[in-house]
Amino acid sequence: MKTRFPSSGLYAITATAIWPGSSLVNAVSGALDGGACVIQYREKDRQPDVALATALLELCRSRQVPFIINDHIELAAQIDADGVHLGRSDCGLAEARQRIGGHAIVGISCYDSLDSAVRAEQEGADYVAFGSFFASRTKPDATPVQMEILKQAKFRIPVVAIGGITPENGRELLESGADLLAVISGIFGRSDPAQAAFDYAHLFANTPSRVNRKGSERRG
Question: What is the pTM for the complete model shown?
Answer without folding.
Answer: 0.92
